[in-house]
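hi! just following up on the protien thing from before. the input was this:
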Amino acid sequence: MPTRRAFMTAMAGAGAAGVASRPVAAAGTDLTEWLAETDDAGSVVDRTGNSEVTVTVGAGGNGGAFGFGPPVVRVDPGTTVTWEWTGNGGSHNVVAADGAFESQLQGSQDATFSHTFESTGVSKYYCGPHKAMGMRGAVVVGDEAVTLPGDGTPTPTPESASGDEPRSFDGWLANTSNYDGVVDRTGEDTVTVEVGAPGNGGQLAFAPAAVHVSPGTTVRWEWVGPRRYDVADPELGYESAQVADEGYGYAVEFGGDGVSKYECTEYGDRGMRGVVLVGDGPRETLSWRGLGAAGIVGTVLAAPLALGVRLHGRTATRPGKSFGDDE
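and the predicted 3d structure came back as:
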Protein backbone atom coordinates (compact mmCIF):
# COMPACT_ATOMS: atom_id res chain seq x y z
CA MET A 1 0.00 0.00 0.00
CA PRO A 2 1.45 3.42 -0.86
CA THR A 3 2.69 5.71 1.87
CA ARG A 4 -0.18 7.88 3.03
CA ARG A 5 0.39 11.59 2.94
CA ALA A 6 -1.91 14.31 4.16
CA PHE A 7 -2.70 17.96 4.59
CA MET A 8 -5.41 18.68 7.09
CA THR A 9 -7.46 20.74 9.48
CA ALA A 10 -9.08 18.73 12.27
CA MET A 11 -11.53 19.80 14.92
CA ALA A 12 -12.01 18.20 18.30
CA GLY A 13 -15.15 18.48 20.31
CA ALA A 14 -17.85 18.52 22.95
CA GLY A 15 -17.00 -15.32 -7.68
CA ALA A 16 -16.33 -20.87 -9.53
CA ALA A 17 -18.35 -19.30 -12.34
CA GLY A 18 -15.89 -21.10 -14.63
CA VAL A 19 -12.34 -22.37 -14.58
CA ALA A 20 -9.18 -20.67 -15.69
CA SER A 21 -8.38 -22.46 -18.89
CA ARG A 22 -5.55 -20.16 -19.90
CA PRO A 23 -2.39 -19.59 -17.86
CA VAL A 24 -1.49 -16.26 -16.37
CA ALA A 25 1.07 -14.82 -18.72
CA ALA A 26 4.18 -12.87 -17.94
CA ALA A 27 3.69 -10.57 -20.94
CA GLY A 28 0.75 -8.64 -22.31
CA THR A 29 -1.46 -6.52 -20.06
CA ASP A 30 -0.47 -6.37 -16.40
CA LEU A 31 -3.58 -6.24 -14.19
CA THR A 32 -1.84 -6.89 -10.87
CA GLU A 33 -2.06 -3.30 -9.67
CA TRP A 34 -5.56 -2.74 -11.06
CA LEU A 35 -6.93 -5.81 -9.25
CA ALA A 36 -4.64 -5.79 -6.21
CA GLU A 37 -7.51 -5.08 -3.78
CA THR A 38 -10.14 -7.12 -5.66
CA ASP A 39 -11.27 -10.44 -4.17
CA ASP A 40 -11.20 -13.57 -6.35
CA ALA A 41 -9.33 -11.93 -9.22
CA GLY A 42 -6.56 -14.51 -9.45
CA SER A 43 -7.74 -16.15 -12.67
CA VAL A 44 -9.47 -15.50 -15.97
CA VAL A 45 -12.85 -17.19 -16.39
CA ASP A 46 -13.04 -18.47 -19.98
CA ARG A 47 -16.35 -17.61 -21.65
CA THR A 48 -15.11 -17.79 -25.23
CA GLY A 49 -17.48 -19.43 -27.70
CA ASN A 50 -20.47 -17.49 -26.35
CA SER A 51 -22.00 -14.58 -28.21
CA GLU A 52 -23.50 -13.24 -24.98
CA VAL A 53 -21.94 -13.32 -21.50
CA THR A 54 -23.41 -12.18 -18.17
CA VAL A 55 -21.47 -10.61 -15.28
CA THR A 56 -23.25 -10.00 -11.98
CA VAL A 57 -23.06 -6.61 -10.28
CA GLY A 58 -23.18 -6.64 -6.48
CA ALA A 59 -21.76 -10.14 -6.15
CA GLY A 60 -20.29 -11.21 -2.82
CA GLY A 61 -16.78 -9.98 -2.20
CA ASN A 62 -14.61 -7.08 -1.03
CA GLY A 63 -16.23 -6.94 2.40
CA GLY A 64 -19.85 -7.23 1.29
CA ALA A 65 -21.83 -7.25 -1.94
CA PHE A 66 -19.18 -5.16 -3.64
CA GLY A 67 -17.94 -7.44 -6.40
CA PHE A 68 -18.36 -8.27 -10.06
CA GLY A 69 -18.93 -11.97 -10.70
CA PRO A 70 -16.65 -13.07 -12.20
CA PRO A 71 -14.17 -10.19 -11.88
CA VAL A 72 -12.13 -11.21 -14.93
CA VAL A 73 -13.67 -12.87 -17.97
CA ARG A 74 -12.29 -13.78 -21.41
CA VAL A 75 -14.59 -13.45 -24.42
CA ASP A 76 -14.34 -13.56 -28.20
CA PRO A 77 -14.32 -10.36 -30.27
CA GLY A 78 -17.91 -9.41 -31.06
CA THR A 79 -19.27 -10.75 -27.76
CA THR A 80 -21.89 -8.74 -25.89
CA VAL A 81 -21.30 -8.59 -22.14
CA THR A 82 -24.37 -7.84 -20.04
CA TRP A 83 -23.93 -6.75 -16.44
CA GLU A 84 -26.89 -7.76 -14.28
CA TRP A 85 -27.55 -6.17 -10.89
CA THR A 86 -28.27 -8.39 -7.87
CA GLY A 87 -29.85 -5.57 -5.90
CA ASN A 88 -27.30 -6.06 -3.11
CA GLY A 89 -24.68 -3.64 -1.81
CA GLY A 90 -26.48 -0.40 -2.61
CA SER A 91 -26.23 1.46 -5.89
CA HIS A 92 -23.57 0.44 -8.39
CA ASN A 93 -22.51 1.40 -11.87
CA VAL A 94 -20.15 0.03 -14.52
CA VAL A 95 -17.54 2.47 -15.78
CA ALA A 96 -14.77 1.74 -18.30
CA ALA A 97 -11.40 3.02 -17.13
CA ASP A 98 -10.73 4.38 -20.61
CA GLY A 99 -14.14 6.04 -20.89
CA ALA A 100 -15.44 3.68 -23.59
CA PHE A 101 -18.69 2.96 -21.72
CA GLU A 102 -20.54 3.92 -18.55
CA SER A 103 -23.83 2.74 -17.12
CA GLN A 104 -26.23 4.66 -14.96
CA LEU A 105 -26.00 4.29 -11.19
CA GLN A 106 -28.57 1.58 -10.36
CA GLY A 107 -29.57 -0.41 -7.29
CA SER A 108 -32.59 -2.45 -8.31
CA GLN A 109 -32.44 -6.20 -8.82
CA ASP A 110 -32.35 -7.35 -12.46
CA ALA A 111 -31.26 -3.95 -13.80
CA THR A 112 -28.91 -4.51 -16.74
CA PHE A 113 -26.31 -2.78 -18.88
CA SER A 114 -24.72 -4.19 -22.04
CA HIS A 115 -21.67 -3.44 -24.16
CA THR A 116 -20.31 -5.26 -27.22
CA PHE A 117 -16.53 -5.75 -27.38
CA GLU A 118 -15.44 -5.72 -31.02
CA SER A 119 -11.64 -5.59 -30.82
CA THR A 120 -8.96 -7.74 -29.20
CA GLY A 121 -7.57 -6.24 -26.01
CA VAL A 122 -8.31 -5.72 -22.32
CA SER A 123 -11.03 -3.45 -20.96
CA LYS A 124 -10.67 -2.46 -17.33
CA TYR A 125 -13.78 -1.25 -15.53
CA TYR A 126 -15.05 -0.41 -12.06
CA CYS A 127 -17.99 0.66 -9.92
CA GLY A 128 -17.62 4.37 -9.20
CA PRO A 129 -18.95 4.43 -5.62
CA HIS A 130 -17.05 1.27 -4.58
CA LYS A 131 -13.88 1.35 -6.65
CA ALA A 132 -11.74 1.95 -3.59
CA MET A 133 -13.21 -1.14 -1.91
CA GLY A 134 -11.98 -3.37 -4.74
CA MET A 135 -15.09 -3.39 -6.94
CA ARG A 136 -13.18 -3.63 -10.19
CA GLY A 137 -13.14 -5.99 -13.15
CA ALA A 138 -11.69 -6.67 -16.57
CA VAL A 139 -12.94 -8.08 -19.86
CA VAL A 140 -10.19 -9.84 -21.82
CA VAL A 141 -11.10 -9.95 -25.50
CA GLY A 142 -9.49 -12.56 -27.74
CA ASP A 143 -6.08 -14.07 -27.05
CA GLU A 144 -4.65 -11.10 -25.18
CA ALA A 145 -2.24 -12.26 -22.45
CA VAL A 146 -2.75 -10.86 -18.95
CA THR A 147 -0.90 -10.93 -15.64
CA LEU A 148 -3.10 -11.21 -12.55
CA PRO A 149 -2.51 -10.87 -8.81
CA GLY A 150 -2.07 -13.98 -6.67
CA ASP A 151 -1.35 -17.51 -7.78
CA GLY A 152 -4.12 -17.97 -10.33
CA THR A 153 -6.46 -20.10 -8.23
CA PRO A 154 -9.90 -20.63 -9.80
CA THR A 155 -12.35 -17.77 -9.46
CA PRO A 156 -15.28 -18.76 -7.17
CA THR A 157 -18.90 -18.21 -8.03
CA PRO A 158 -20.57 -15.17 -6.48
CA GLU A 159 -22.27 -17.51 -3.99
CA SER A 160 -18.99 -18.93 -2.70
CA ALA A 161 -17.40 -15.52 -2.62
CA SER A 162 -20.10 -14.19 -0.33
CA GLY A 163 -18.59 -16.03 2.63
CA ASP A 164 -15.16 -14.47 2.21
CA GLU A 165 -13.62 -12.68 5.16
CA PRO A 166 -13.70 -8.89 4.82
CA ARG A 167 -10.40 -7.17 4.12
CA SER A 168 -8.46 -6.30 7.24
CA PHE A 169 -6.54 -3.32 5.84
CA ASP A 170 -3.11 -4.95 6.18
CA GLY A 171 -4.15 -6.53 9.48
CA TRP A 172 -5.22 -3.27 11.12
CA LEU A 173 -8.72 -4.64 11.85
CA ALA A 174 -7.72 -8.30 12.21
CA ASN A 175 -8.48 -8.30 15.95
CA THR A 176 -11.47 -5.95 15.88
CA SER A 177 -14.40 -8.13 16.91
CA ASN A 178 -17.23 -5.91 15.68
CA TYR A 179 -15.75 -5.47 12.18
CA ASP A 180 -17.69 -7.41 9.55
CA GLY A 181 -17.07 -5.31 6.46
CA VAL A 182 -16.86 -1.75 5.19
CA VAL A 183 -20.07 0.25 5.56
CA ASP A 184 -20.83 2.34 2.49
CA ARG A 185 -21.69 5.92 3.46
CA THR A 186 -20.60 7.60 0.25
CA GLY A 187 -22.66 10.56 -0.86
CA GLU A 188 -23.38 11.74 2.70
CA ASP A 189 -22.17 15.10 4.00
CA THR A 190 -21.79 13.93 7.61
CA VAL A 191 -21.20 10.44 8.97
CA THR A 192 -21.33 9.49 12.66
CA VAL A 193 -19.13 6.84 14.28
CA GLU A 194 -19.88 5.79 17.85
CA VAL A 195 -17.01 5.68 20.34
CA GLY A 196 -17.34 3.12 23.12
CA ALA A 197 -19.86 0.92 21.34
CA PRO A 198 -20.16 -2.77 22.37
CA GLY A 199 -17.33 -4.94 21.10
CA ASN A 200 -13.88 -6.32 21.86
CA GLY A 201 -14.93 -7.61 25.28
CA GLY A 202 -16.74 -4.53 26.52
CA GLN A 203 -17.72 -1.08 25.36
CA LEU A 204 -14.46 -0.94 23.48
CA ALA A 205 -15.39 -0.46 19.83
CA PHE A 206 -15.91 2.10 17.12
CA ALA A 207 -19.21 1.52 15.31
CA PRO A 208 -19.11 1.06 12.44
CA ALA A 209 -15.49 -0.02 12.51
CA ALA A 210 -14.90 0.85 8.84
CA VAL A 211 -16.72 3.37 6.68
CA HIS A 212 -16.35 4.41 3.05
CA VAL A 213 -17.05 8.11 2.50
CA SER A 214 -16.83 10.59 -0.34
CA PRO A 215 -14.20 13.36 -0.39
CA GLY A 216 -15.49 16.36 1.52
CA THR A 217 -17.40 14.27 4.07
CA THR A 218 -17.22 15.16 7.74
CA VAL A 219 -16.77 12.14 10.00
CA ARG A 220 -18.01 12.81 13.51
CA TRP A 221 -17.03 10.49 16.36
CA GLU A 222 -19.56 10.57 19.22
CA TRP A 223 -18.78 9.19 22.68
CA VAL A 224 -21.41 6.67 23.86
CA GLY A 225 -19.42 4.55 26.34
CA PRO A 226 -18.45 5.13 29.98
CA ARG A 227 -14.64 4.95 29.72
CA ARG A 228 -11.92 7.38 28.74
CA TYR A 229 -11.51 7.18 24.98
CA ASP A 230 -9.76 9.08 22.26
CA VAL A 231 -9.51 8.97 18.46
CA ALA A 232 -6.02 9.10 16.99
CA ASP A 233 -4.29 8.59 13.66
CA PRO A 234 -0.65 9.51 14.34
CA GLU A 235 0.37 9.05 10.71
CA LEU A 236 -2.12 11.62 9.46
CA GLY A 237 -1.63 13.75 12.54
CA TYR A 238 -5.05 14.06 14.13
CA GLU A 239 -5.87 13.16 17.73
CA SER A 240 -8.76 13.99 20.00
CA ALA A 241 -8.56 14.61 23.70
CA GLN A 242 -8.88 11.52 25.90
CA VAL A 243 -12.12 11.95 27.83
CA ALA A 244 -14.86 10.02 29.61
CA ASP A 245 -17.89 12.06 28.62
CA GLU A 246 -20.92 10.59 26.86
CA GLY A 247 -22.03 12.99 24.16
CA TYR A 248 -18.55 14.37 23.58
CA GLY A 249 -17.75 14.77 19.88
CA TYR A 250 -14.73 14.98 17.61
CA ALA A 251 -14.89 15.58 13.87
CA VAL A 252 -12.65 15.68 10.83
CA GLU A 253 -13.51 16.65 7.27
CA PHE A 254 -11.77 14.36 4.77
CA GLY A 255 -10.86 15.44 1.24
CA GLY A 256 -9.05 13.80 -1.64
CA ASP A 257 -8.53 10.05 -1.77
CA GLY A 258 -6.93 7.83 0.84
CA VAL A 259 -7.36 5.76 3.96
CA SER A 260 -7.16 6.71 7.61
CA LYS A 261 -6.42 3.92 10.09
CA TYR A 262 -7.12 5.18 13.59
CA GLU A 263 -7.48 3.79 17.11
CA CYS A 264 -8.17 4.52 20.72
CA THR A 265 -4.69 4.78 22.19
CA GLU A 266 -5.76 3.18 25.48
CA TYR A 267 -7.63 0.19 24.02
CA GLY A 268 -6.27 -0.17 20.50
CA ASP A 269 -4.33 -3.31 21.42
CA ARG A 270 -7.66 -4.85 22.47
CA GLY A 271 -9.20 -4.23 19.06
CA MET A 272 -10.59 -0.71 19.41
CA ARG A 273 -9.57 0.40 15.95
CA GLY A 274 -11.26 1.88 12.92
CA VAL A 275 -10.82 2.83 9.28
CA VAL A 276 -12.11 5.69 7.14
CA LEU A 277 -11.80 4.92 3.44
CA VAL A 278 -12.06 8.13 1.43
CA GLY A 279 -12.97 8.41 -2.24
CA ASP A 280 -10.88 6.18 -4.47
CA GLY A 281 -8.88 4.90 -1.52
CA PRO A 282 -5.14 4.63 -0.91
CA ARG A 283 -3.10 7.04 -2.95
CA GLU A 284 -0.11 9.19 -2.13
CA THR A 285 -2.26 12.16 -1.13
CA LEU A 286 -5.08 12.26 1.38
CA SER A 287 -6.25 15.82 1.72
CA TRP A 288 -8.20 17.54 4.43
CA ARG A 289 -10.03 20.83 4.90
CA GLY A 290 -10.80 22.76 8.02
CA LEU A 291 -14.21 23.22 9.58
CA GLY A 292 -15.63 25.16 12.46
CA ALA A 293 -14.99 23.97 15.97
CA ALA A 294 -17.10 22.16 18.53
CA GLY A 295 -16.80 21.50 22.22
CA ILE A 296 -13.23 21.62 23.50
CA VAL A 297 -11.36 22.67 20.42
CA GLY A 298 -8.09 21.62 18.88
CA THR A 299 -7.00 22.94 15.52
CA VAL A 300 -4.35 21.72 13.11
CA LEU A 301 -3.90 23.84 10.02
CA ALA A 302 -2.09 22.66 6.94
CA ALA A 303 -1.46 23.45 3.31
CA PRO A 304 -1.07 20.99 0.45
CA LEU A 305 2.36 20.06 -0.80
CA ALA A 306 3.06 17.94 -3.87
CA LEU A 307 3.15 14.73 -1.86
CA GLY A 308 2.91 15.55 1.75
CA VAL A 309 2.03 17.59 4.77
CA ARG A 310 2.77 20.96 6.19
CA LEU A 311 1.30 21.52 9.63
CA HIS A 312 0.80 25.15 10.60
CA GLY A 313 -0.47 24.56 14.11
CA ARG A 314 -0.67 21.67 16.53
CA THR A 315 -3.79 20.86 18.54
CA ALA A 316 -4.33 22.55 21.84
CA THR A 317 -7.50 22.30 23.86
CA ARG A 318 -9.50 25.37 24.70
CA PRO A 319 -13.18 26.11 25.32
CA GLY A 320 -15.32 25.96 22.23
CA LYS A 321 -18.89 25.34 21.26
CA SER A 322 -21.08 22.30 20.86
CA PHE A 323 -22.05 20.61 17.62
CA GLY A 324 -24.89 22.48 15.98
CA ASP A 325 -23.89 25.90 17.32
CA ASP A 326 -23.37 28.65 14.79
CA GLU A 327 -19.77 29.37 13.94
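The radius of gyration is 22 Å.
The chain has two domains: 6-13+167-300, 29-156.
cheers
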